[in-house]
Amino acid sequence: MKFIDGGLSPSGPLAGDGHFLALKFTADSWSPYTSVKVGLNPSQGTGLVEIIDDPDKNAVFKITDNESQWVEITWTNGTNEGYMTYSLKDLVLESDEA
Fold first, then answer.
1. Which of 38, 43, 79, 86 is deepest in the core (most CB within 10 A)?
2. What per-residue confidence (pLDDT) applies to 97?
3. By C-alpha distance, which of 81, 83, 45 is closest to 62?
């Protein structure tokens, strides 16, 4: 992942120098779900964010430590719940001096 000077936003969780990961979440159908939340764990203050009503289902994450962070997805259909996690350990973070 390339290092981005200045970040992606003038303020908030995407501000400041760093590495950023953009993901698009897809499902055969979103209608069975009453909630789908995504985020990094540990996060830098945003926690899990609801995407069920997000029209494009895209998310951007600022990676601060790929060895200890992971992407987490939780969902519910009102009766059942589930979650998935994805390790970031295999990401290669480019040096900020490159």
1. 38
2. 67
3. 45
